[in-house]
Amino acid sequence: MGDLERKIFGTDGVRGRANQYPMTPETVLKLAQAVAQEFQKNPGNHGIVIGKDTRLSGYMVESALTAGFISMGMNVFLVGPLPTPAISMLTRSLRADLGVMISASHNPAEDNGLKFFGPDGFKLDDAVQDRIESYFKENKPSGLASPLNLGHARRIDDAQGRYIEFVKNAFPKGLRLDGLKIVVDCANGGAYKVAPTVFWELGAEVISIGNAPNGININQNCGAMHPEFLIETLKAHQADIGIALDGDADRVIMVDEKGTLINGDFLLAAIATSWSQKNKLQKNGIISTIMSNLGLEHYLASQGLHLVRTNVGDRYVSEYMRLHGYNVGGEQSGHIILGEAATTGDGLMAALQVLALLVEDQKPASYLSSLFTPYPQILKNVKGVKKSSLKDSSVLSMIQNLQDSLGNKGRLIVRPSGTEDVIRIMAEGEDPHMIEGFIVDLIEVLEEKR
Structural domain tally of the chain? Predict the structure, then answer.
């Protein structure tokens, strides 16, 4: 299949191996021109915000994007290394047509990607992405600027400060973090400067790790995907709480004073409970994905709240929140969206909301991990199986039989990966041995379809 026949957009923008299709300079430049065609439809001057994390390949991709947009007569604002949610915020603040974050999120440094935000700060919907795909597949971009009408590029030197103030403004007025000792793992990524500064300015004693990026160590044995050193550091310093971001800081997980991991489900439970008690929670419920633990759903029900599930991906959570008027949503992985302040997952903002409720109620971080008991949940990936196998009658029948056996005391989710040639299986239930057996049986049937 030729490059122009492949689908560019995945479940969360564009992603791939750096300097390999689609993350090559040639493809990125062509994609920028295709994106420009979509956003040139509106009259007036056009501005594009471009940010990045700390990957070595970010320099290459940033230059290719800039060249593509300038060739179409669009002006570029370069803001350098920042969290993904900062690009969403700056796109709105600068009244830009588009924001682009150069990042592969929690992936290793060898990968890179592009996340796109519209003028409203929300990720582009499927219809817009489809039109951009069609422009990309044309042989020649339409709308190339004349020599005297090329765009220009400007670096926004105070972008970090703007984002720091934006995040702090979502923290309760008059509240401080004095007396709290916090370990912050920045994943050697986009938040390596702003995250420690935010907590320090609010009064916390901050111990920073994962804050020395060198271009190739982003997410490497650190951050939300690898919290082992965070736990070790927390215990060594007898800190009150640990906070781990991923490479582009749109997700967060925490560690309590005992070293217990606190994932996004517990953070959602805590925020929902606190906001409900303060009459801040809209619609009496929250939005999460099919991957959130059944324990969270049962806990919310015990509090008189409900959980609505969407497909995997914070973009789908955000879209549902916006369409139906919810103001809290997120994923088990730590993408937490606070709709009144942000349009996408923001690890720093979510962490501050959790710290606020702990300080206000004078509770230790272990309160978070005590909210509910998660059901045992097992995740497996089956490689080399075609997506079409999930339409096979024998596979469908087995999935249905297994789900019937679980009843309302468990769940079985089988789905194709949006970025890899992989079938993902998630099973949860009261009896871990039973669900492990279910998964083994299902994998055998899937592997027969190779």
Answer: 3
Residue 43: pLDDT band with limits 50, 70, 90: low
Q: Tell me, what CATH number does 275's domain have?
A: 3.40.120.10
Work out the pLDDT band at 6, boundaries 50, 70, 90: low
Between CA 444 and CA 425 the distance in angstroms is: 12
DSSP conformation class of 166: H
User: 183 and 126 share a domain?
Assistant: no
Range of the domain at 381: 377-447
Distance CA 362, CA 404 (A): 44
Q: Is 105 a catalytic residue?
A: yes
The answer to whether the beta carbons of residues 194 and 163 sit under 8 Å apart is yes
CA dist 415 and 318 (Å) reads 20
Statement to judge: residues 358 and 427 lie in one domain: no
Which of 51-55, 79-83, 372-376 is the least confident region? 372-376
CA-CA distances (angstroms) from residue 287 to 125, 181, 316?
18, 31, 10
Q: pLDDT per residue over 197-250, tens digit each? A: 999 999 999 999 999 999 999 999 999 999 999 999 999 999 999 999 999 999
128 and 169 together in one domain: no
Which tokens belong to 315? 């973009």
CA–centroid distance for 119 within its chain? 19
Give the pLDDT confidence score for residue 430 in this predicted structure: 86
Among the listed residues 105, 288, 369, 389, the single catalytic one is 105
- 250 lies in the same domain as 353: yes
Give the pLDDT confidence of 164-191 residue by residue, as tens digits: 999 999 999 999 999 999 999 999 999 9
Domain stops at, among 304, 336, 369: 369
Q: Which residues contact 309 (CB under 8 A, 6 or more apart)?
A: 287, 288, 289, 290, 292
- Averaged pLDDT, 307-331: 94
Which CATH number goes with the domain that contains 434?
3.30.310.50
Q: Can you say whether residue 296 is alpha, beta or left, with left for phi > 0 and alpha for psi between -120 and 50 degrees?
A: alpha
- Indicate if 422 and 314 belong to the same structural domain: no
Rounded CA separation 278/185 (Å): 30
**Structure confidence at residue 2 (pLDDT):** 45
